[in-house]
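Listing 4. Sequential folding, example run.
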Amino acid sequence: MLQTLRNAWRIEELRKKILYTLFMLLLYRLAGVIPVAGIDVGQVASRLGDLPLLGFMSAMTGNQFANMTIMAMGISPYINASIIMQLLQVAVPYLENLSKEGEEGRKKIAQYTRYATVILGFVQAVGLVIGLGAIRANMFSPFITSCVIGVSMAAGTTLAMWIGERITEKGIGNGISLLIFAGIIASLFTWVASGVNTLFTTSVTVGGIITAVCVILGILVMVTAVTFVDMGERRVSVQYAKRVVGRKMYGGQSTHIPMKVNASGVLPLIFAYSIMQFPGTIMGFWPNSGISTWWNESFMTGMWYFVVLALMILFFAYFYNSITFNPIEVAKNMQQNGGTIPGIRQGKPTSDYLARISSRITLFGGIFLALLATIPTLASMWGGINLPFAASSLLIAVSVSLETTRQLESQMLMRHYKGFL
């Protein structure tokens, strides 16, 4: 990876893109130090340890949620709005027609997504702050204070969305993923600094050393597992028959269809965590009701939370796979070009075979993501071993790093750059 960055830096165009990306990420982090008026930060910090979802959200934003800055919501409302628009494209004929109109239709859908992001950012900010009971009592009326908080955080979300889109357009990598990556890395540095400070200011015990070694080994095992699964793929062999077109002969070669083990990447995790915010946001407007108390004190800290989270991760893994991979279309293209899978007939048998393989791979990938999202927290609850951040955060960081590296390598390959391997 370091060699790839050094080689990319030698190309002027890529160097400008890298500098532009770093500048926009710096702007995102600088905007994250602006506090929001009217919030009791101490009350928010005291509730983060009780609610795993809020802890993960804080890690994704680089502790900006814990500090209640204008970037506290991060790009979570944008993700929620994107999910809603994708689901509505299946249910609403107007949006479905827009998605089929090419570039102009996608621009209109993107514009609707931006409007929905601002609305959701306002509603989620107000709902979470009220639900956490973090509005200061010595401010103006609660209604005015809530409106100020909602507008401030919605403005921060809009700025984060704009930064992410600019990185995607003019920089390197996916802008939204890089913003989440920047927040996770910032949280990691905070944890490292806190650990070093604790090491030099407190007495070192045998138990503390054993715990630290277990945490480091756990992180190394998770990084290895995430890298192995992220780069794993199932290769389906395809044989193309020889055919003569004019005076030339085509085909007669063997190739394969690469099907990634974790084709959906980190999206099911992000989608599942984002959707889990909705009930808490709505119930936040009635913080003293029985259902809100049960949700925050029983469901969010109990076993059912992890069960629902795992099922939602599986659902979004299959949902994303159904959007990105169409076995019928792949089988049709193979048949038109004279390609066959050894031992499988063309047409429907081929599409059924590809669908069956895709379903099995997606099931494995979804279970892997669900385990990553739930096992570390369960180990903390039952075994007393606290990891510095969730395994899902580690998955996002590793996946984004690998994907950005692959994009750099592909752009250097397009320029016939030698020596990037």
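-- end of first protein; second protein begins --
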Amino acid sequence: MEFETAFILRYIHVLAGVMWIGILWYFNFVQIPTMPKIPDDLKPAIGKHIAPEALFWFRWGAMFTIVAGLCLAYSLGYLREAMELQESHRMIGIGMWFGIIMWFNVWFIIWPNQKKALGLVEADAAAKAAAGRTAMLFSRTNTMLSIPMLYCMISFHA
């Protein structure tokens, strides 16, 4: 039963992670750089339809990735060692900590600021602009963290 549980958790972890990081990279390598080139009359389609939907899958991809990853590490018996960055699990632990930081950024910094920037919650023009910049900077931070995080995750062999 342990193998089946670990396999299912690993599969959910990878599947959700592909969604999360894929959308993160879409935002940072496609949407953000392309927005200045989009005519103003077409931008509302992005802000009112595409971005909110993408952000839904983005944040829930993050949640399922973290939960499945932590459950996987627990089920395989190395959660504590990894979280404490013990030598035998240091690489996966570093990857896990990067993932947790990125998850935190998604739920508690990027998403609240994107709600303001996209007009999903009430905010004046200055607050919207500031929120958009904050969301973008933390999204870029997550993009940079995703590179060593992925390296640490794939270099660990349990």
